[in-house]
């Protein structure tokens, strides 16, 4: 294997040549490979060839998890070439929309950092770091579609997305979240970062913001936060992630730069890179301040006050999100396949500060006035045996909530009608209007 000046990293030109000319049939025999067929593997390979055609990075480095980041000239990065766009300039944040974390996550890349091979973990001026997507990574999924979509089969969901987030996928999402229907051009919150364990039969756990609107072909979203997703990233550390869809997760949508849909602008926190630290139970709480703002046709994302990049609004196919969102949503999400991972810290919401996960200083940008407005969220916890959420307001934190829980095996989803139960007993006994607490007391009496 030949190398460039980034010792220990395969030259990008060799990476592309090997992808183009190599015989990848052996991938299907590897233990980590889940690719459904040779045709599916070929489609994954073609995706990468199209994504990186003509790309010429100037420098490369690896992060602490071993992920490779290539420094492309900012105006020649794959996303701009794919969509034939010129680079946009970030907007100025409105007054008050620059909340700073008390204990921020350290920059993922910096001039004084070196990777395991001694390469500088900063890109040359005029370039941006973009995570290198490999065929090995894609082959951990059955098809290219499985890789690009937000994995899993969402069950019916209350609040913002309940009418639209019903793609035919193969695993179930569970949530603890808080939402508000309001015309907006983005918003902000501070999220404390955790590293929940993802076990066998479990897929991912995250804390994020959603900005959404109902389009003719399904919900349209901009999503951002931190996520632990071992099958995708190849490690179990929390990662800065973004996601989007224009049609209810059916035929559009991808994480970060994996399909050339997100334009990377900033240099200190590339999307897809592991965050440098996580919160400690009972100790230091590491936070990221995430801002989303629609400006001049682009959905910009900021981290700790610095621009990360943007989704061009043209990707929303002249749908509602091309000009604004109608709903905001904040909270946790997990995906499992019979078993569900911890959410946040793994502690329920009532454990509070330094034990439960939280988001705070939650605001939205009013679409009509452009002013920052404190949110007024409605909480939803449809799987309270696994995850809970508790919304509050205070002078220093503004609108906030605690959330999370340990997860579990698959549990029934609660709906409003579940507050009173219908119970069938022996010999056709039928009891209506029984509360959950009443049922618990009845079971204790019967077992006494």
Name the descriptors:
12% helix; 16-stranded mixed β-sheet; 448 residues; three-stranded antiparallel β-sheet; single chain; globular; 7 helices; mainly beta; 2 domains
In words, what does this structure look like?
The strands form 3 sheets. This protein has a 16-stranded mixed beta sheet that branches. Residues 152-170, 416-430 and 432-437 have low confidence and may be disordered. It is globular and about 60 Å long. The longest helix is centred in the N-terminal third of the chain and has 15 residues, at 38-52. It has helices at 12-21, 38-52, 78-83, 135-138, 144-148, 230-233, 436-447; strands at 59-62, 68-73, 127-131, 153-154, 172-192, 202-215, 218-228, 239-245, 254-255, 263-264, 287-295, 298-303, 306-312, 325-336, 357-366, 372-374, 378-380, 388-394, 398-404, 420-424, 430-435. Strand 1 (59-62) and strand 2 form a beta hairpin. The chain is built from 7 helices and 21 strands. By secondary structure, it is mainly beta. It is 12% helix and 33% strand. The protein folds into 2 domains: 85-126 and 142-404, no CATH class; 418-447, no CATH class.
**Residue share in β-strands:** 25-35%
The major beta sheet can be summarized as: 16 strands, mixed
What is the average of the pLDDT values? 86
- Our Rg estimate from Cα atoms comes to 23 Å
Helix content: 10-25%
Number of strands: 21
SSE series: HHEEHEHHEEEEHEEEEEEEEEEEEEEH
């Amino acid at each position: 294997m030949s190398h460039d000046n980034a010792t220990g990293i395969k030259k990008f030109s060799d990476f592309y040549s090997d992808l183009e000319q190599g015989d990848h049939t052996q991938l299907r025999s590897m233990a980590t490979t889940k690719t459904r067929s040779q045709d599916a593997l070929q489609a994954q390979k073609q995706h990468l060839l199209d994504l990186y055609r003509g790309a010429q990075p100037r420098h490369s480095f690896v992060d602490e998890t071993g992920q490779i980041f290539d420094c492309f000239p900012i105006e020649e990065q794959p996303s701009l070439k794919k969509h034939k766009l010129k680079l946009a300039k970030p907007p100025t944040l409105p007054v008050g929309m620059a909340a700073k974390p008390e204990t921020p996550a350290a920059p993922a890349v910096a001039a004084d950092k070196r990777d395991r091979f001694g390469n500088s973990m900063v890109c040359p001026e005029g370039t941006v770091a973009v995570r290198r997507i490999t065929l090995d990574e894609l082959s951990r999924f059955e098809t290219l579609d499985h890789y690009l979509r937000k994995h899993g089969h969402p069950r019916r969901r209350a609040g913002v997305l309940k009418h639209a987030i019903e793609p035919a996928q193969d695993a179930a999402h569970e949530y603890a979240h808080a939402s508000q229907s309001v015309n907006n051009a983005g918003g902000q919150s501070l999220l404390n970062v955790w590293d929940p364990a993802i076990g066998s039969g479990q897929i991912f756990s995250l804390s994020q913001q959603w900005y959404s609107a109902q389009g003719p072909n399904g919900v349209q979203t901009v999503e951002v936060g931190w996520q632990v997703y071992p099958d995708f990233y190849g490690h179990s550390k929390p990662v800065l992630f973004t996601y989007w869809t224009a049609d209810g997760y059916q035929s559009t949508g991808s994480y970060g730069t994996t399909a050339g849909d997100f334009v990377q602008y900033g240099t200190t926190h590339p999307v897809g890179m592991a965050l440098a630290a996580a919160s400690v139970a009972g100790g230091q709480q590491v936070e990221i301040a995430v801002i989303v703002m629609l400006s001049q046709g682009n959905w910009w994302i900021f981290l700790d006050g610095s621009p990360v990049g943007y989704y061009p609004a043209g990707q929303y196919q002249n749908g509602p999100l091309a000009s604004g969102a109608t709903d905001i949503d904040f909270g946790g999400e997990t995906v499992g396949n019979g078993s569900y991972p911890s959410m946040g810290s793994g502690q329920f919401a009532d454990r509070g500060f330094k034990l439960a996960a939280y988001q705070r200083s939650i605001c939205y940008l009013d679409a009509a006035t452009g002013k920052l407005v404190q949110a007024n969220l409605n909480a939803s916890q449809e799987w309270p045996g696994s995850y809970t959420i508790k919304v509050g307001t205070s002078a220093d934190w503004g609108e906030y909530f605690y959330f999370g829980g340990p997860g579990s095996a698959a549990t029934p989803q609660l709906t409003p009608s579940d507050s009173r139960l219908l119970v069938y007993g022996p010999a056709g006994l039928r009891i209506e209007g029984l509360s959950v607490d009443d049922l618990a007391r009845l079971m204790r009496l019967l077992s006494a």
